[in-house]
Amino acid sequence: MNTLGYAILSVLGRNPCSGYQLATHLEVLWPAKHSQIYPLLTKMEQNGLVVFEHVEQTGKPDKKIFSITEKGKEALGAWIAEKPADSILRDEFLIKIYSMWTADENHATELIHERIAKLEHKVALRDKKIATVEDEHKHVSSKHFGRYVLLNRSNLLDKEEISWCQWVLKLLENSNVIRFSLGIASAVTFNKIIQSISFFSEI
Amino acid sequence: MNTLGYAILSVLGRNPCSGYQLATHLEVLWPAKHSQIYPLLTKMEQNGLVVFEHVEQTGKPDKKIFSITEKGKEALGAWIAEKPADSILRDEFLIKIYSMWTADENHATELIHERIAKLEHKVALRDKKIATVEDEHKHVSSKHFGRYVLLNRSNLLDKEEISWCQWVLKLLENSNVIRFSLGIASAVTFNKIIQSISFFSEI
DNA sequence: TTAGACATGTAAACTGTTACATGATTCC
DNA sequence: GGAATCATGTAACAGTTTACATGTCTAA
Prior knowledge:
mainly alpha, Arc Repressor Mutant, subunit A, two-stranded antiparallel ribbon, DNA-binding, WH-like_DNA-bd_sf (chains A, B), PadR family transcriptional regulator (chains A, B)
């Protein structure tokens, strides 16, 4: 069993659901496409980790509702007790930021503004989700506690990244000020600008 | 060419280096094993994006020092101008946190403490790296500016995650207080505890 | 003396993405 | 009329990891 399998067991541990629903719920935990989820569910069902029930629907296609079994819960519990593997982040944005100034300096501001817009959008969506979490699910005793704290985690981190973006924008702006004013600026003005650039690193 | 290829070009854009060195430098940009890097470098060399020079060494194995070509710079520049793909984060810790309380509540505190330790270790290492960045490389004009801002980004985010971990620990602690004191606590005390639990969400 | 850094490569296995396949319903 | 949602599946391909291979030097 791979990590995706345990992620699936985690989601099913709260609510039985279809492969289609799993694909959306997994997004925050361990992103996967339906083409990976369906075959794995079949395999897990054969191994007795999950069971499913056919649900006929009118107007919509029929679906299979999967639930976790006792064996599945045991397997999940054993896996959780192991130390988690190091996290892996793959983000093209980081590569582009890294090389931005060697390749095309003017494009940098646009790239960062688009990043901010995306992050703000994500935060807004999650804020709505957090707002619908009822107070009784915000406590350790609730099975929705894990989801609640993870939603908050993502938002804290995304907001922090927005702050970082704004810091970088400030650095870019200040460097433009220097460039435009170098011809007329006195040494005193220049030093003031240089000092203002490092305002963030002192926080 | 895949994203790893552009990540390699990005690193070579600053400093020519060997496949072995690339493996370490790529860690923050696009993690990859040497078994993936070496064959790709050969392919990129055949396509004229990079060139290499044999360097004989005594005591150590010989190495190939790769540099980016003009064609490589053009390819990188064109790729940077495209919109970055959505970032992908795969983190087993998140799955374990999500399921922690259904499977084994007592283990949660340990898991989070280990997370904090790891994050603090990473931050300390990066702080050292940031400290060695000279002031002239902290400006947009430097080819090390990208690395400098990315180091700061990672540290800001890791520090924010440490705060989040401490918030979760607080929630867990408070729930224990409630559990232990329920038999003797007055309604007033109970309400005070409940209020203290949400202190963080008001920030 | 044993682990880790330096250094490069290949092969097999596994994981993940894209494309192919089908089809009704609802909302703009 | 077209896109999105619901719903499940397979096949081919691309990307990533683990294991196999080899060998020296240095520091704990």
